[in-house]
């Protein structure tokens, strides 16, 4: 039951006990994940100096979201999601322990790094839709769901702001293995929260995994506004989100820096993302979400071009903040729209298809810019991504108003 005390509108989802427990555990877990992500990127570039391998590793980590994610969504809709999420947290912890041990012993190399990244990607293909689809259960309905989604994204982006600079400091004093070990411990936070949450088992979809999967595809394919929103997620993550692959190259080669420089660049993007989630936490109307997604897609394209052209760290940090704000508004805003409109019994599949598009095309974009950077240089690769995104915005702009009207008129089912 929700807390009877009044809560500020910007954090109203925290009035629900179950969501507060999830929120606290996820805050610890997400911070650890950012420590590992930054340390892994630095380890790859320190060992190999290859921008292409950065792209390959990101591709291996995110591609399972595209290949496994949609079927994972159908599978988890047929099981108790809370129990599954507890099991996945344990497996993620074991992956981080193995990565720490391999790095500490000196056995780690490019092949093992890519293999461990791929394993992480498979586990995340289950973890992400599990967490996202459980949020509506933690807040007991749809009224506070948009705020819960925004606060969940705020956790990710707060850690994105704090984690990379902290990882940079840790790498200066310790090693990548320490960051991986701390991440392994961080999974205990969410596991503990899930164990004390009180809730009925989640409803299970009837039928085979194939039947359940096809039902989710029919829901998305039969609704033109949702198809268009998914296409926008595809393009934004294919282009704008690919910047993350190239940050070690810019930190080391363009700005002649070290792991701390990489941490500052990632932290600036995290600050922008945090501000973006605070912005979304106070928005309610669907048409205004559509407008902000469109404006932020344009801002992301401009941010890519500004970062590509910059030779000054201060300007690049500002461009990173703009990119973080814009990408977060596009991705989280779309997630809020999809989950607000999706029926309860289809939410796992809708979330899985959304996350597979988001992270899968992030993987493809990262691979492409890594290869392009190897041949033409990182600034030209990032500039090309910016031009492509702005071209898509020019195509989408005339359709924006109609999209807002159609989304508003769609029924919101509790099914």
TrEMBL record:
Q: What Gene Ontology molecular function terms does this protein carry? A: transmembrane transporter activity
Record's GO cellular component terms: plasma membrane
Membrane-protein topology: Multi-pass membrane protein
KW Transmembrane (keyword) present? yes
Q: What is its main location?
A: membrane
Q: Which UniProt keywords apply?
A: Cell membrane, Membrane, Transmembrane, Transmembrane helix, Transport
Q: Which SUPFAM superfamilies match?
A: MFS general substrate transporter
Localization, UniProt: Cell membrane
The residue ranges crossing the membrane are 21-45, 51-72, 228-251, 263-281, 288-309, 315-338, 350-372, 378-397
InterPro entries under this entry? MFS_dom, MFS_trans_sf, TM_effector
Q: Does the keyword Transport apply?
A: yes
Domain Major facilitator superfamily (MFS) profile span(s) in chain numbering: 18-402
Looking up Pfam families in the UniProt record yields: MFS_3
Q: What is this protein called?
A: Major facilitator superfamily (MFS) profile domain-containing protein
